[in-house]
Design goal:
- By secondary structure, the chain is α+β, with helices and mostly antiparallel strands.
- 18% of the residues lie in helices and 39% in strands.
Length: 218
């Protein structure tokens, strides 16, 4: 599990096809690798990757075809800058929201507008994912925990403060940029729970109504 609070940035220094999928090496000069062990998870642009080889300045991981089909990794080139976050520890502060590192799909930046010292980004998401993106809810964009400030049809707006832009890859975003999108887990689990059992659905009218008002159900 992760929080969506980025610890460091790095870049992809190697991309190797191996027996049909991908091996990647990530380098970072400011990610502390001292407490990282083989088998640990590191979110890389929001994708949960398992460390299969450790270096003083980064790590190597394998990217499966499933991950390639759902994320931007298939389009990345050597030198791609990525956001990095080590897995959440029980003693850590949960400064963002619970992020699994399991990407739901790809969103695209469709508008960028300055607003005082902040910058507003409108993103277009796959239509089947929009029901999981509520107003004032949380999403992870390339692994960054962010708050949804507006919703219009298949688009949603994020407001990025200067500190977040400085510490992540968001400063490089522009119209047309595609990003990894993970929706809030609670919304997905609620849909499963409410949709799995017809009895639960019929006996939970009030709960369903409240969830709809909160934006979790459309």
């Amino acid at each position: 599990m992760f929080t969506g609070i980025i610890e460091a940035t790095g870049h992809l220094s190697e991309l190797k096809l191996q027996q049909g999928d991908l091996s990647v090496r990530v380098k970072s000069s400011n990610l502390d690798m001292a407490d990282v062990h083989l088998g640990d998870s590191i979110a890389t642009n929001g994708v949960c990757l398992t460390v299969v080889e450790k270096f003083s300045d980064g790590f190597r991981a394998d990217v499966s075809n499933e991950t390639l089909s759902l994320t931007r990794f298939g389009d990345y080139k050597i030198g791609q800058t990525v956001n990095l976050e080590k897995a959440l520890q029980p003693i850590s502060r949960l400064g963002g929201h619970l992020v699994s590192g399991h990407i739901d799909g790809v969103a695209q930046i469709v508008a960028v507008t300055p607003n005082a010292r902040a910058t507003e980004y409108w993103l277009k998401a796959p239509s089947h994912l929009m029901k999981y993106i509520p107003y004032k809810g949380s999403v992870a964009i390339d692994g960054i925990s962010l708050t949804v400030n507006a919703i219009e049809d298949d688009r949603f707006k994020l407001t990025i403060v200067p500190h977040t832009a400085q510490e992540t890859t968001i400063a490089d975003f522009k119209v047309g940029t595609k990003v990894n999108l993970e929706v809030d887990q609670i919304a997905r689990y609620l849909e499963r729970l409410l949709g799995k059992d017809d009895t639960v659905k019929s006996e939970s009218t009030l709960t369903t109504s409240l969830l709809a008002q909160a934006g979790f159900i459309r």
